[in-house]
Specification:
Pfam families: DUF952
CATH superfamily: Protein of unknown function DUF952
CATH class: Alpha Beta
Organism: Streptomyces daqingensis
Number of strands: 10
Strand content: 25-35%
Protein name: DUF952 domain-containing protein
Helix content: 10-25%
CATH topology: ADP-ribosylation fold
Shape: globular
InterPro entries: DUF952 (IPR009297)
Length: 119
């Protein structure tokens, strides 16, 4: 299993669960608008959380732990587009090119976890 992480507002995740599909790409942008769901690897998550959710109380956030083997949509590791929130660089981020089935989420973690890290 490749572990992919996606940070989101708890209310957004909870509202998606009954449908069985999560379709938000990133804060304020849907899968339909963006074309994919932004994800992170564990070491990338603190930077992403700071850029997207610095103004959000940690208790309002949740980290979705996704089992990539449970996805039917393709996952591509791609560099950020210049000017995107994570900035230019050579590090690639996982992108899920389709809806996220609720069944692919194998854990939900509070943000921040122990010592300010997810988990």
């Amino acid at each position: 299993m490749a572990e992919l992480l996606h940070i989101t507002e708890r209310a957004v995740w909870e509202s998606a669960r009954p449908s069985g599909r999560y379709e938000m790409s990133t804060r304020g942008r849907t899968l339909a608008e963006e074309g994919f769901i932004h994800c992170s690897l564990r070491h990338q998550l603190p930077r992403v959380a700071e850029m997207l959710y610095a103004d959000t109380a940690p208790s309002r956030l949740v980290v979705l732990v996704i089992d990539s083997e449970r996805l039917s949509a393709p996952v591509r590791f791609e560099p950020p587009v210049p000017g995107e929130v994570c900035g230019p660089g050579t590090e690639e981020f996982p992108h899920v090119y389709g809806p996220l089935p609720v069944s692919a989420v194998v854990a939900e973690e509070a943000w921040p976890g122990p010592a300010g890290e997810a988990g």
